[in-house]
Amino acid sequence: MAIKSSKPDIERIVEPISHEEDIISEVSLRPKTLEEYVGQTQIKKHLRVSIESAKIRKSTLEHILFYGPPWLGKTTISAIIAHEMTATIKHTSGPAIEKQSDIISLLTSLQEGEILFIDEIHRLRPQIEEILYSAMEDFQIDIMIGSGTGATSVKMDIPRFTLIGATTKLSNLTNPLRDRFGHVLKLDFYNTKDLSTIIDRSFRILWYNELNTEALEAIASRSRWTPRIANRYVKILRDYATVWHEINNKKACDTIFESFGVDIHGLDILDRKLLQHLVTTFHGTPVGLSTLASIIGEEIGTIEDVVEPYLLQIGFIERTPRWRKITQNGEMYIQSIQ
Ligand code: ADP
After folding, report:
1. 3.30.70.100, 3.40.50.300, 3.40.605.10, 3.40.1110.10: which CATH number matches 40-186?
2. What is the mean pLDDT of each run of 10 residues along the chain (338 residues)?
3. How far apart are the C-alpha atoms of 328 and 221, rounded to whole Å?
4. Model pTM?
5. Ligand 1 atom closest to residue 187's alpha carbon, by position in its atom list
6. Is the CB–ligand 1 distance for residue 38 below 6 Å?
């Protein structure tokens, strides 16, 4: 029997849901060039060469697949590639392409050299994927004319384009689709230094006094090595700064983060609940994802994509496809907060 889970009754501050104001400031915070894009050094080096080469050859870029946890900058870097190639970019996502006719009209409406960005590409339906195979490889699509026994398939040329796919679940992509990408690039979590640079840049853009090293470190250490979370905290601290005037010290930052339940590691109530159950309910033994999701009342996808990657990265849990369990460091953390 499938175990159902329900949404938690709190909105996680570490889970940056887009509010209207967020969207407006989001645009101003998004880096526009590779130069402004912080960190991910290897990827930027690689892309610089590919972009330069495509420009010299007066050709389109090979198709690119970005993968990694959410909010690390896959969408941002795709827009930057378009900017650097002086190409336009069309955005869509795997679940938004429902019918074969959707993908056909998208592909046939592309201009030569345009970029098609498909977010959550692992959620494309198989019939849609099949159309993409020949579109990506030969820049052709098969169109069925007529119906029943009289139906014939006709090949139609489409403009040369670059597909950029983004996914948080590389393992859910089929091999034929994955093989058609010329570049498969993994975005990593950001280190504290790069996050501090992002936070500093965002604070300057939102125009308040500069942050000092103490405040920068206080935000960076809680941002789960993720730029979108860092930017959300910058906006919150800007609000406190507007009212309190002085936030440029560790003590003030600690007080602010405490007020919305985010600790020095960047963990919030949901992370603590999950770790706590692994210790007290399951006594450190391995537990399946659906059981865990049901016990803490959260969706499986949120635990898998949002909560666990960071807990794994800081060494508080271990997981296999079948189970997850607490580590010694995770247990020590739980003891320290009791
Ligand atoms: P993803 O597509 O991986 O979910 P986004 O591209 O939407 O992530 O990134 C989230 C936000 O974080 C962006 O809008 C941008 O403001 C910021 N951001 C992401 N990567 C960087 C970076 N390398 N340098 C500066 N800001 C970044």
Report:
1. 3.40.50.300
2. 37 57 70 95 97 95 96 95 96 93 93 96 94 95 81 90 96 94 96 94 80 88 94 90 82 90 93 95 93 92 90 95 94 92
3. 21
4. 0.87
5. 3
6. yes
